[in-house]
Amino acid sequence: MNAIVEFRGAGYSVTRPQGSSDILRELTFTVAAGETLVLLGRSGSGKTTALKMVNRLLSPTSGEVLVEGKPTAAWDPIRLRRRIGYVIQETGLFPHFTVAENIGLVPHLEGWDEERIRSRVRELLEQMGLSSHEFAARYPRELSGGQRQRVGVARALAADPPVLLFDEPFGALDPVTRLDLQKQFLALRDALHKTAVFVTHDVREALMLGTRVGLMRNGRLELLATPREFLHAENDEARAFLAGLDWKMEADGPSQ
Amino acid sequence: MDLRSELASLTLEHFELVLVAVIVAAAISIPTGILLTRRAGMRRWVLGFANLLQTIPSLALFGFLIPVPLIGGIGKRTAIVALVLYALLPMMRNTLTGILGVDPAVRESAVAMGMTGRQVLWQVELPLAMRTILAGVRVATVTTIGTATIAAAIGGGGLGVFIFRGISTVDTTQILAGAIPAAVIALLADEGLGWLERKLSPV
Ligand SMILES: Nc1ncnc2c1ncn2[C@@H]1O[C@H](COP(=O)(O)OP(=O)(O)OP(=O)(O)O)[C@@H](O)[C@H]1O
Ligand SMILES: [Mg+2]
């Protein structure tokens, strides 16, 4: 299996007036084609920072990050980013673009002709469970949070990038809508065979969506495991996350 | 010349002073404002300088410029230079705040989608900041219409001619003949640019 994304001793530190501090230390892992690696960790553990090094919104201050075998520093950043879809919790949809224009953004930048963009937008909207007739001409402010997030995913998929990055995309949604989108994510992943890095602090989500889970703590990768291995891991931090799950089960009644 | 035809020609002259001054000032201050969004270190100095210009009493600023070579002297050119210096700050500041006010998540997405710096500026930042920038243009225009009445003191012409003449001859009619049209133009400009602001703002 070939690695689509690879971290090689990647570190990130910032210099502040009080001195320099390490946000990420020596991250090393690979994400194979078609795999979904979930980065799980508490708030401030460095998940977002790690994710942004993949599409070069940030550059490692030590080590390197490779995409399709080439260090991000050697990529033309524009070319690199057009091959990587990016979905964030705040969606970042353009408020002055319609839904259709938002989704068509990257195809437009890539110079597709209008007819092709239109049919691609229609296809993606339907794929995300939104009627294109009803939603294409709306503005983001005219959508619910869940609908906005679907449009955000559609926008990331538009030019069919081989790599997708997700930063807590479903974090702000109600549990039912979230489950809906999580299922949709799984269906899409299996249908489209994308390589994805998915950031979350929700252990349930990590176990559900990840082919592997990378557990982060204080800027380090503590554990890299399949969901099954993760459930039985001895690691403190993993147990701390799993404790949240047990508590939910107990509420259902005696577990034995 | 009777009052009526003089009124017409001075009003036109006033208009011209304001129009030229605002266009030149916009051409300087909007690009500068954009540059300042990219150069945080320069902000204090440039805004401080534009701010300083505004604190100089307008009559004094016109006076200061008279002895300056090339741009100075008696006449329209000096008047326009002074008006430009006055109009810089509101447009520069509003361009800066408008662009800095764009939702960081929107800007980050634009970059992450693979837009070039230029595309982010023209397709995202400027459209979203347009309303704020136009508000700066409106403020600058309305102030310039008022300040331009002082241009007459250094031979710049415009409706100020009536006002200064009225003061020196203690003739209220003359003063009003200058002041009322200036106020009406200012109100119309305020309304018109306000309408444009609402019409062009995307959100
Ligand atoms: N630009 C920056 N300058 C200095 N420190 C930063 C910067 N960006 C992030 N940090 C720090 O780096 C650490 C990791 O931040 P990061 O955003 O990667 O965390 P995270 O795991 O995504 O957290 P969350 O779950 O809350 O989003 C935090 O302690 C944060 O304060
Ligand atoms: Mg984060």
Provide structural commentary.
The complex is a heterodimer of chains A (256) and B (203). Chain A has eleven helices and ten strands. Chain A is α/β, with parallel strands linked by helices and 256 residues long. Chain A has a domain at 1-30 and 41-80 and 197-249: Rossmann fold, CATH 3.40.50. In chain A, the strands form two sheets. Chain A has a six-stranded mixed β-sheet. Chain A has a four-stranded antiparallel β-sheet with strand order 2-1-4-5, with no helix packed on it. In chain A, α5 crosses α7. Chain A is globular. The model of chain A has no long low-confidence stretch (mean pLDDT 93). By secondary structure, chain B is an all-alpha fold. In chain B, 80% of the residues lie in helices and 0% in strands. Chain B has helices at residues 3-38, 40-55, 58-65, 76-100, 104-112, 117-147, 160-168, 172-200. In chain B, α1 (3-38) packs antiparallel against α6, α1 (3-38) packs across α8 and α4 packs across α6. The longest helix of chain B is centred in the N-terminal third of the chain and has 36 residues, at 3-38. Chain B starts with a helix and ends with a helix. The model of chain B has no long low-confidence stretch (mean pLDDT 90). Magnesium ion binds at residues 47-48, 167 of chain A.
How helix-rich are the residues of chain B, as a percent range? over 70%
- Total E-strand runs of chain A: 10
CATH third-tier fold name of the domain at 1-30 and 41-80 and 197-249 in chain A:
Rossmann fold
Radius of gyration of chain B: 19 Å
The radius of gyration over CA of chain A amounts to: 19 Å
Total count of helical runs of at least 4 residues of chain A: 11
CATH class of the domain at 1-30 and 41-80 and 197-249 in chain A: Alpha Beta
Order of helices and strands of chain B: HHHHHHHH
Assign the CATH architecture of the domain at 1-30 and 41-80 and 197-249 in chain A. 3-Layer(aba) Sandwich
Keywords for this entry:
heterodimer; A: 256 residues; alpha/beta; Rossmann fold; 6-stranded mixed β-sheet; 4-stranded antiparallel β-sheet; 11 helices; globular; B: 203 residues; mainly alpha; 0% strand; binds adenosine-5'-triphosphate; binds magnesium ion
